[in-house]
Design brief:
By secondary structure, the protein is α/β, with parallel strands linked by helices. Helix content is 54%, strand content 12%.
Length: 201
Amino acid sequence: MTTVIGLTGGIASGKSTVSKMFATAGIPIIDADKIAHEVVAPNTTVLADIVSVFGGTVLTATGQLDRHKLGNLVFNDDDKLAELNAIVQPVIRKVIRSRIDRFRNRNTPVVVLDAPLFLEQHYEKDVDLIVVVSVPLKIQQARLMARNNLSLAEANERIESQLSLANKVAKADVVIDNSQQLEETRLQVVNLLDKVRQTAD
Ligand SMILES: CC(C)(COP(=O)(O)OP(=O)(O)OC[C@H]1O[C@@H](n2cnc3c(N)ncnc32)[C@H](O)[C@@H]1O)[C@@H](O)C(=O)NCCC(=O)NCCS
Ligand SMILES: Nc1ncnc2c1ncn2[C@@H]1O[C@H](COP(=O)(O)OP(=O)(O)OP(=O)(O)O)[C@@H](O)[C@H]1O
């Protein structure tokens, strides 16, 4: 039997950080952001659809998606973000589901699905446990501004384009508090894995 852990949280809450901790413990990761990057490679129909809606200016000189430019177009315009989601989410969903099926068929004991839009895109039924990484808003803003070199207003636009963290926490089976030192977070990951393994035994 496979336990699929759905790992989510707000932007810059620490999903990748937590997901690396699971990977270090030997757990395979399905990374939705990585899949989202793969499905828009040059010469894909997804990229062609994006260009037909947003125009050729979202491409770099070498025909790659200019992620920074597209991000600036969609994160302050709900309608444009919805248009982008309508193009990419069905394709991302297909890849995610086929990877989960493969792990379940192989009876891999524990797998993590790291998906920022897990709750917005309703992946609840695809997983066995919902884990939300949580930090107070002030820490989320500060980490996002530092990591992506954004102003407070730009950081807030991105934070507000998702379900609120409080809303995500309310839907969680387990909450990982990532507001302290990394070691504190790592201990919570190790504890959670112990519990999951005990339940599966
Ligand atoms: C708009 C894009 C080009 C911006 O690229 P950029 O390199 O700046 O961001 P990146 O892809 O690394 O995502 C960073 C974070 O932004 C947030 N985010 C990404 N896409 C979305 C979205 N559609 N809605 C809300 N938040 C989002 C997530 O928290 C994500 O972890 C890119 O995010 C994208 O293609 N998004 C659509 C695909 C998607 O939904 N990805 C999320 C995985 S399900
Ligand atoms: N406990 C921590 N203490 C200090 N900094 C941290 C901690 N956890 C994460 N960070 C930093 O905060 C930033 C956001 O973390 P991370 O990239 O893991 O978030 P994320 O939720 O995966 O983001 P996204 O939604 O954009 O994919 C990174 O720069 C990371 O190094």
